[in-house]
Amino acid sequence: MRIEHAALYVSDLENAKAFFEKYFGASAGAMYHNERTGFRSYFLTFAGDARLEIMHRPDMTEGDKPLCRSGFAHLAFSLGSRAAVDDLTQRLRLDGYQVINGPRVTGDGYYESCILDAEGNQIEITE
Fold first, then answer.
1. How are beta strands 40-45 and 51-56 bridged, if at all?
2. Hey, what domains does the chain have and what are their CATH numbers?
């Protein structure tokens, strides 16, 4: 058994797609649009065939996104090396994204940094 994909509602579908393409090498499929509900989505495929569905509906509600809450906490991307983590973290910082910690070695031995995307979703970058 494997997880087929994870899904994330976003306020700005095109901006979210561009973010994952630019920084994490995602390849987007065609946009799906349900004209009756206004629902739109893209399936993003990453190296190793991991998939993320990003979705938007006009009737979505916005809420606070505290880092410590129940539910899904973050998306994690493994880059393969500490240098890659350092480089991408610095690139994201220079592009105006908030780095909330790292790069650092965690208590359980991971080398990682965590950033917030444009909508406040936590993204973990690990070696």
1. antiparallel
2. 1-60 (3.10.180.10), 71-127 (3.10.180.10)
